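A sample copied in:

***
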Amino acid sequence: MTSRSIEMLITWFGSGYIKPASGTWGSLAALPFGIVLHWAFGPLALGVLALLLYGVGVILGGVYLITAEHPDPDDFVLDEVVGQWLALAAAPLTFLGVIVAFLLFRVLDITKPWPACWIDRRMHGALGVMTDDLVAGIYAALLVFMVGSYL
């Protein structure tokens, strides 16, 4: 993979460069892909793809961070894609379901409930960047699943 293609993946096609709140923009940019994958292949496939993308993010994110000026740069939003897809995998494909999955993930990504806050402080490199959002995505998915029958 070229450094440009790694950059495009890590910044989720450049959405990580949008300011302010690049994480929110990355999550929004993840939704169309996630919705199509959920619709075409089902929620389980979307969850599996999110976990595969997590692994890709840990590996390629490490390459990306070599030249980054910050240990968790704002433009690195592949972690938001993973978390958002996990939340979306638990949601019914309705307008309300997508909105609730989006909002719950964003709230949990920002507030970082334990162990995401611990991971954010203690794990370094791409593993830390990716894993705190993985946890937030799992929490969001559980909450979305619990309220899913009401959506």
